[in-house]
Amino acid sequence: MPEQNMQGQAEQKKRQPLFHMIKRNSLPLWHSVAIRAAAILLAFVFTGILTLLFTGKDPIRIAAIMFDGAFGNSLRTWVTFQNVAVLLCISLALTPAFKMRFWNTGGEGQVLIGCLATATCMFTLGGKLPDWLLIMIMTVAAIGAGILWGLIPAIFKARFGANETLFTLMMNYIAIQFVEFFLKVADKSGSNTVGPNLLSHGWIPALFGEKYLLNILLVAVLTVLMYIYLKYSKHGYEISVVGESENTARYIGVNVKRVILRTMALSGGICGFVGLMLVGATSHSIDTNLAGGYGFTGIMVAWLAQFNPLVMTFASLLIVFLQRGAGEVSTVAGLNQSFSDIVTGILLFFIIGCEFFIRYQLIPNREHKFFAKKQTQEEQVQ
After folding, report:
1. CA-to-CA distance for 329 and 66, rounded, in angstroms?
2. Cα 270–275–277 angle (5° rounding)?
3. 285 domain-assigned
4. How far apart are CA 29 and CA 234, in angstroms?
């Protein structure tokens, strides 16, 4: 019997986990900042080693190439900040919905539908109306189309309890097909892009001769307004309450359905505004890849910044820098463009993975045979 008990205890220890995972109540700001900084440092070290193996260039040279790819001249710098503005604006659009625990994965489609509305106005009304009036119509159409694209899944969620994640995701593909249809109607040559030759009217004027500056300034203002809206307004408070618990929100008198509809209208409207910026102010063209996947990258930015619009600025800058820098490394080293995606993915894995250690703590399980054996050895030594 004693032997059986000992064997049973040994088997039980084998089944014990090595660590217990405990959710942290809170962390001091410096502690969470230190964890994120360590994750970024480790990510750069790991990608530096990987890049060294593929390119044969030392990490310092790689860092210089990445910086040159993002900020090497004035044009590259403007393009970098324009991409930051686009990614940040999409992240701002998704943030209210995510804070409400409405998983809006349709940012890409909402941006594309805003692009489509803008391009349609430019194509059909260009030359028939004064440009100032056309720009006003484009603005209303783009934002309105984004609002509509956000309200459709919100209505089904609020009234029928539909799964918003799948609903918004599927609407991305519908938006892509609408854009494809427009391309075939507008350009009979079968081109995959409708460019400035067809969208020649309604261009939003450049500010001080720089076409990217207006977008950057507008997104900077929107970032501050979104921060104030979420933190200090009644609507922002209702979004937080609904996100914590819909039952609690109903108990204190919050109209949950109205909050869902209002928040998704805001989310879709901002995405539609991004579409206006992309077509009307910068590219003056439209294709199915115009959003550049930022509708999905914006989800990572929002989560990485913990839904803080001000922190999203730095997160967006970091991600765009990594993408453009890794792309330059691929070009200089003569590697496939996929290499830049691999490097960016590894870096994002480290950065997002560090959130686990911010939210949870690993406690050694003293019942596990590894720690039990170690404790026995220490007792024998003593």
Report:
1. 6
2. 95
3. yes
4. 27
Q: Which two tokens mark 338? A: 């996929």
> Could you tell me which of 201, 182, 191 has the C-alpha nearest to residue 117?
182
Q: pLDDT band at residue 174, thresholds of 50, 70 and 90?
A: very high
The pLDDT value given to residue 368: 56
CA pair distance 149, 172, nearest whole angstrom: 10
Residue partners of 279: CB distance under 8 A and separation at least 6: 115, 118, 119, 122, 199, 285, 286, 290
Q: 0.90 cut: is pTM over it?
A: no
Q: Which residue has the higher pLDDT, 23 or 6?
A: 23
Count the neighbouring beta carbons within 10 Å of the beta carbon of residue 213. Answer: 17
Residue 252: strand, helix, or coil: coil
Domain extent for 234? 75-324
Question: Residue with structure tokens 């049973």?
Answer: 8
Residue 182: partners with Cβ closer than 8 Å, 6 or more residues away: 116, 119, 120, 194, 286
Is the separation of the CB atoms in 24 and 360 below 8 Å?
A: yes
Q: Is residue 188 part of a domain?
A: yes
Query: Total structural domains in the chain?
Result: 1
Mean pLDDT of all residues in the chain?
Answer: 85
Tally Cβ neighbours within 10 Å of residue 33: 12
Which pLDDT band holds residue 339 (cuts at 50, 70, 90)?
confident
Convert 290-325 to b/e letters by CB count within 10 Å (16 or more is b): bbbebbbbbbbbbbbbebbbeebbebbbbbbbbbbb
- Dist CA 159 CA 142 (whole Å): 26
Sorted by sequence, the CB contacts under 8 Å of residue 181 that are 6+ apart come out as: none
Q: Give a yes or no: residue 339 inside a domain.
A: no
Go through 250-286 and write b for each residue having 16 or more CB atoms within 10 A of its CB, e for each that does not: eeeebebeebbbbbbbbbbbbbbbbbbbbbbbbbbbb
Please give the residue that has the higher pLDDT: either 376 or 267. 267
pLDDT category at 172 given cuts 50, 70, 90 is very high
CATH code: domain of residue 206: 1.10.3470
Q: pLDDT tens across 229-259, in order?
A: 999 999 999 999 999 999 999 999 999 999 9
Q: Please provide the DSSP assignment of 33-75 as one string.
A: HHHHHHHHHHHHHHHHHHHHHHH---HHHHHHHHHHHHHSSHH
Query: CA-to-CA distance for 155 and 260, rounded, in angstroms?
Result: 8
Q: In this structure, which amino acid lies at residue 98?
A: F
